Amino acid sequence: MTLSLFDQFMSPTLLGIPLMALALTLPWILFFKPGNRWSSSRFSALVAQFLKWFTKEIFQPMSLGGHKWALILTSLVLFLITLNMLGLLPYTFTPTTQLSMNMAFAVPLWLATVIIGMRNQPNLSLAHMLPEGTPALLIPILIVIETISLFIRPLALGVRLTANLTAGHLLIQLIATAAYVLMSIMPVVAILTSVLLFLLTLLEVAVAMIQAYVFVLLLSLYLQENV
Amino acid sequence: MPQLNPAPWFAILIFSWLVFLIFIPQKVLAYKFLNEPAPQNVKKSSSTNWLWPWL
Questions:
Q1: Angle between helix A139-185 and helix A187-226 axes, rounded to 10 deg
Q2: Which domain of life is it from (chain B) (predicted)?
Q3: Beta-carbon contacts below 8 Å between A and B
Q4: Complex ipTM above 0.90?
């Protein structure tokens, strides 16, 4: 079987057992529950700071009805950031490169925000279809456009995360292959390629964190519109 | 692209939601924060200034 560049994204199986289960459950061993002390450990202090900062950022602009979502959105950001960052280590599998997983989170959560809006305040939710101050002639077209943009949101959420992470991992693999091959032929160019690889890895670390945050931020914005 | 392979889609969906609903909220809820953030419309009652008791 010829190896193609996309093989790193295949759902890993070993003797027919899907290892995706391991890739999804083992990262949580890294997070210990903090004990009852006032200050447990350095890592738990860092995680606590992050959770507090994140909760403030997302829920300060939200009305009180949306605060019920605090636990699920905070869990989601922790989930995504951990999976993204761990995927940058060599030989690890990143579940967030799988479109199935990202859509599995994007579609139900987006649909939940839409349904909440439609049930609690249907007039206001439907009014979002038409921005204020549109000229009367443009109203029909704009309604169609806004409805399309509403339904494209879950697709965009899922595909954005998938594509960003897949592209990053693919680039790392390509440039690393290039550096490795060039090492025997043109060592100086190989060193330059390695510098590029280093910078790219830094970028990927940033992208991993930002994309997880953006996913949850957009969900919280959709919630703010509807709650 | 192997991501578009429909075979494990449903299994991945179910399993990732199970992990997301079972393991992570336990770990998140275990963090206790000791301050109560007050809403912004609460007025602070004016308190007497503290001074050294022997002055």
A1: 160
A2: Eukaryota
A3: 83
A4: no
Q: How far apart are CA A26 and CA B8, in angstroms?
A: 19
| Amino acid letter for position A97 | T
Determine, yes or no, domain membership for A2.
no
3-state DSSP: chain B helix, strand, coil percent, rounded to 5? 45, 0, 55
Full-model pTM = 0.86
Closest partner residue to B3 (CB to CB) among A47, A71, A98 is A98
The verdict on residue A215 lying in a domain is yes
The answer, for B29 touching chain A at a CB cutoff of 8 Å, is yes
> What type of residue is B55?
L
> Which is it for the CA torsion A71, A204, A2, A19, positive or negative?
negative
Look-up of token digits 């609690």: A120
- The secondary element (H helix, E strand) that includes residue A14 is strand A13-14
- The verdict on a CB contact (< 8 Å) between B3 and A31 is no
Query: What 3-state class would DSSP assign to B30?
Result: coil
How confident is the model over A139-189, as pLDDT tens digits?
A: 888 888 989 999 999 999 999 999 999 999 999 999 999 999 999 999 899
- Domains in chain A: how many in total? 1
Helices (H), B1-55: 9-29
Q: Is residue A1 part of a domain?
A: no
Q: Which candidate, B5, B20, B11, places its Cα nearest to that of A83?
A: B20
Q: Does residue A182 lie within any of the structural domains? A: yes
Q: In this structure, which amino acid lies at residue A205?
A: V
What are the Cα distances from residue A43, in Å, to A125, A175, A190? 42, 33, 37
Range of the domain at A38: 7-224
